[in-house]
Amino acid sequence: MTTVVNVEKFYERLNRIHAHFVKHRESTWNGAHCISIDRGASNDESRFLKSTVIHYYLFGYELPDTVLLLTKDGQCVVLAAKKKCDFLEPAVGKAPKAGSVTSLKLLTRIKSNDNTENLEEMLKAVRGGSNDEIVKIGVIMKEFTSNDFAKEGGIVSGWEKKLNDKSSKTEAVDVAGGISVIMAVKDKEELDLLKKSSVLSNKVLKHGFVPRIEDVIDSGSKVTHEKLASEIEEILEDPSKIKLNVPREDVESCYFPIIQSGGDYDFKVSAQSNEENVKFDVITVSLGARYQMYCSNVVRTFLVDAPKQVIKNYDILLGMYEACLKVMAPGNPLKIVYATASKYLRDEGKDDLAASLPKTLGFGVGIDFRDTHLLLNKKNTVLFRPGMVFSLAVSFAGLKLSESTRASINSKSAIKNLSEYGLMLADTVAITDKGADVMTKFGKAVTDISYTINEDDEEEESDDDNDRRLAKKIAKEEEAQPTGGRRSGRLAANASSTQESETVAERERKQIELMSRRNEERLRELARSSKKKGGDSKTKKAEELDAYKDTKSLPDNVMPNQVKVDMANQCVILPICGNPVPFHISTIKNVVLPDPDSAAYLRINFYTAGMAVGKDCPENTAKLVQKYAPYATFIREMTFRSLDSHSLTTAFRQISELRKRAKMKELQDQEEANLVKQDSLIRTKNERVPRLADLTMRPVFAGRKTQGNLEAHTNGLRFISTRGEIVDVMYTNIKHAIFQPCENEIMVLIHFHLKNPIMIGKKKQQDVQFFTEVVDASQAVDVGRRSMYDPDEMDDEQRERQLRKRLNEAFKEFCRKVESVMRKNGYSLEFDIPYRDLGFTGNPHKEMVAIQPTLNCLCNLTETPFFVVDLSNVDHVHFERITFMSKAFDMVLINKDFTKQPWRIDMIPNEDKDSIQEWLTDMEISYTEGPMNLNWKQIMQTVEGDDRFYMDTEEDEVTPKEAGWEFLRMHGKDDDVDEESEEESVYSENSEQDESSDEESEEEDFDEDSDDESDFDGDDDLEEQGMDWDDMEREAAADDRRKKRDGDDVPDPRPKRKTRR
């Protein structure tokens, strides 16, 4: 044996065992006088024995056919073959003085006399000089009674025969429980190895099993449970397959992975993966990694097309798991875990599920994968202590799937064939001073483990929340897709499925009902908001200008007949009758320096009462003017003359600069006026921080491209630019988080829409975005056309696709980690993804962009300025320019705050109108249509001043009126037919007159050219307003023709030419 024992670690752990043995000998160690660890001959089963575990614990290796004897007085005697004694030789005589173990003695096997001398010497050490007393020897009883397989003449077999001899006066007692208790508390090195083992299990599950099972589900391929388990075991044995740089000799599988589905579930540790094909219903996977002999375990249940009954039971299981986790704290007995699980089921009214609980809810783990003395059952009285590590495994077995639930499931779903199913959830958990710490971090929420590949046949809207109702109304099953990919189950729109699409009339009926309901809701909201506001809204009073307390505070260098500018106190000191009089810079309206002639002039104009102060006037100055206007005398203008132009020029330049500074200061104060003070960022320590590198932030600092790294900490995110600039975004200030992968765009991005604005540079911003470009926006395109078979172009496209995929995965993984960090620290936020299937083009600002809805917003994030509309702030939507002739229409989104102007999206193609209106109806947002653009500034002012806007009666409460936004309807809700005909008479008046005029022209001028007839319009005067150049040309041509008919009939021989006037 070329290696030697780690002496320091050996004595540290041996002293720990001996100290506990001496202190608790009569109780935990069953009154033993000494401990005998008998490790027999090696075989296939020996690696799972307690004696093997303690060998790895003490020596770091297994030493077969070896006896280790530890007496209560601190003697340690080892009987082994020569090579093993050589391995332990460095520890001889090195016992620490501070420890309870005093000596180590090695006895080398003697073949000539069957170890008789060595056995006698060991027995003498056991008895300690006493010949009469029966000595109790602590052994691992399960192995002591089954060591018959040891070869004849072996060390262990000879020692155990000696102990069984009556003349030895010894009695064997079981000390396996004491060994389990002392090894249950892990030291720092052991905890580190267990953490690495847990990370390995987590990585194999996340990057090995999950992508494989998703690929199987997507492709619909058939694979057996055993085959899939073999693939996972290969990854456990060789982590490089998932790009983990871990030495293969350090890792192995704790057990053959257990994968189950199709209704056959066995949640025992000894269960096996069968040879049946994986069914896409309820799939459980159990796997465990062993890293440098230390074990970990993780179990997850994945739900495919799960009905609500299954999801509810999983939520109960998850809640029970969290409750058990909370009581795994130092000082509590192990049995409290089972008691807490039972109590949780009773409190939730799920007593029927108690029968589905297993007998144990977990076990202690370490070098020994399953320590039977540390089971989380009903009776175990061992106390939790810091440093212990357990596998917490909660499960429900034999759950029934009701006939009514199965009937409501889509016929294509495999879960419809289940009559029974099981659910299981397990993690490796370390006990710390603060409580339980989960070391296998894979997500457990329903959103992390559920998949939808077939929608339900029947919809039960009364039980669904808004999200599920929205998904079921809009999402359609995706058919005939060659890629086999699945669309979003929330907002996927499929125009080919016409059976479930709503007709325009049905949508209009729903809109009328929705409008009525929304009016009532808004009335209640306004009533609540008015109660909260009360009389708190107070106008800010004007602040008096007090630059100097007295004349002594004036600058020392003030001259009696000189214009002086005090930049520090923001004052201009002007000479009046030889006396210096200070004027605050905010009172000066402007300053003029005419071109000098024989003398220089400086004219200063002030803000005064009796005339408009202008929009550039500071707010405080305007209030002061209004305050003192009734009784004060104002100076409107002052002019100064000087033969020395230099002094007045200097004063002019300084006054202009001071006005500029004051204006900038006022703008900055206005920007920061409504800012809410943010919490300080708490940086994460002692664990890995989720990070995205090489990102670009928008908006930028001071007009420069801002690049850097984004990190997720305890209570917020921190962006650190390459120039050291820092932007903190608190979790509590994030209203909506959006992740937009790059598919048709040139960038992949994460966008945060904030509740309260933050300062970035010198501007207040409510939207912050971090992105990485996949393709450079300014990349030049080769002018020459290249062949579609050009290998270079094909390679470029392939690299771009791979880059897109890699970036999408990196950003998606970061979003998951951020959500995990927030959940861990008590915050709740999920990233939304835009629904491309419902996207449309429009012009929210000054260019056409792609606009896409998310669950909570309507947004465009790729172009600046950003367009983000929070749907919870939208009161109503109105469509403008809805006519049969127009090819596009405009959409106006009205804010619930009537003091703010509505959002506009112009030039939306008509083809998108029906899908947008259907989406709005499903989102329960009312809408109306109209043929023309409206003056929304005037409308919002009128609505804001109407206290009975959402009521359907006038102030006398008798006279009916249209409530809310019903006045925008083209057709009323009660008399559609009458109003339609009435509108026809109004809006079709011009067309009827056009027809009559055309008929008259045909009768009078039948012989004239048809082009002339088509250009004539009898009601051109009515159409004069808003005419463009073409209309004016046509009108002029019609006038010429009328004059020609009334007067000269001689045709003009010159050809007609259109000229633009």
UniProtKB/TrEMBL annotation:
User: Where's it mainly located?
Assistant: nucleus
Does the entry feature the keyword Transcription, yes or no? yes
**Coiled coil (UniProt feature):** none
**Residue intervals of the FACT complex subunit SPT16 middle domain:** 563-719
Q: Where is the composition biased (Acidic residues)?
A: 975-1033
Localization, UniProt: Nucleus; Chromosome
Key words of the record: Chromosome, Coiled coil, DNA damage, DNA repair, DNA replication, Nucleus, Transcription, Transcription regulation
Q: Where is this region: Disordered?
A: 474-547, 974-1061
**Nuclease found in the keyword field:** no
Q: Where is the composition biased (Basic and acidic residues)?
A: 504-547, 1034-1054
Cite the FACT complex subunit SPT16 N-terminal lobe domain residue spans from the record.
5-179
A single GO BP term for this record reads: DNA replication
Q: Which InterPro entries match?
A: Creatin/AminoP/Spt16_N, Creatinase/aminopeptidase-like, FACT-SPT16_Nlobe, Fact-SPT16_PH, FACT_SPT16_C, FACT_SPT16_M, Pept_M24, PH-like_dom_sf
Under the subunit heading, UniProt states: Component of the FACT complex.
User: To which protein family does this belong?
Assistant: Belongs to the peptidase M24 family. SPT16 subfamily.
Q: What is this protein called?
A: FACT complex subunit
